[in-house]
Amino acid sequence: TSGLMAGKRGLVLGVANNRSIAWGICKALAAQGAELALTYQGDALKKRVEPLAAELGATLAGHCDVSDAASMDAVFALLEEKWGKLDFLVHAIGFSDKDELTGRYVDTSEGNFSKTMLISVYSFTALAQRAEKLMTEGGSMLTLTYYGAEKVMPHYNVMGVAKAALEASVRYLAVDLGGKAIRVNAISAGPIKTLAASGIGDFRYILKWNEYNSPLKRTVTIDEVGQSALYLLSDMSTAVTGEVHHVDSGYHTVGMKAVDAPDI
Ligand code: NAD
């Protein structure tokens, strides 16, 4: 194969269907010659992920629930046996009870706070621990975050607190792993209608708001996130680490509603 990712092998977690951000990333990587391994969360998603993996000639690395250490161990054992090494890792996973992605942050329960942090934040570190061992020739790790980490966004609530912790963990991991030429970055994506996003209250309003008020006057696609991920996962960005890169039509740069924005 040829392309920017020729000879590179990586694990992608977070494909649920063909609207997943992880799927946009997979397509961009495969088009540049990357060899991919995909996991799925439970049998319900296996049916969706299996044909998608086949479409890209990717390895199906089995079920992986990041709240279950044994299922992560199994995936890495399989990759160690099959590939012996790993060049990149994509973490496109987040979860919070949708009953708490509406209303007030102050009402967050301890149980959902802990679960949101475990699945949306700690899992990236847990995967990094395992991936480090296989990244013997350096590597690149990428996670997905959102502007709700930096500023209060309606209904994002505990997920915003989790994304802030995730972005901080990107910086700590970048320092810990930098000596091994392993880079760790995040993409802060603008809102995209996916399965996970459908759990957020008034998501359509958020999409419209971003469309009317971002410098580019539009929302972003999973393919555009994929192209930016390609940069961060390839040798195009060998001196970039600890970075949170916004792929959001420039929304994070504006401080106020656009003067010409229509009412929503
Ligand atoms: P998605 O629903 O397609 O993907 C979310 C994935 O998380 C699914 O594949 C699901 O199986 C996985 N997941 C949830 N809990 C898991 C667990 N315990 N173990 C393993 N996997 C688990 O939605 P998406 O929008 O593509 O989300 C991907 C990432 O992008 C998330 O981190 C999300 O917060 C982030 N993000 C999304 C948007 C957006 O607007 N859609 C914007 C910025 C960031």
Automatic annotation (TrEMBL):
Biological or metabolic pathway of the protein: Lipid metabolism; fatty acid biosynthesis
EC number of this enzyme: 1.3.1.9
Keyword Oxidoreductase among record annotations: yes
Gene3D superfamilies registered for this protein in UniProt: Enoyl acyl carrier protein reductase (1.10.8.400), NAD(P)-binding Rossmann-like Domain (3.40.50.720)
Keywords recorded for this protein, A-Z: Fatty acid biosynthesis, Fatty acid metabolism, Lipid biosynthesis, Lipid metabolism, NAD, Oxidoreductase
A Pfam family assignment: adh_short_C2
Keyword Cell membrane: no
Reaction catalysis annotation: a 2,3-saturated acyl-[ACP] + NAD(+) = a (2E)-enoyl-[ACP] + NADH + H(+)
Family from the record: Belongs to the short-chain dehydrogenases/reductases (SDR) family. FabI subfamily.
Protein name, UniProt field: Enoyl-[acyl-carrier-protein] reductase [NADH]
Biological source species: Aureimonas populi
Gene: fabI
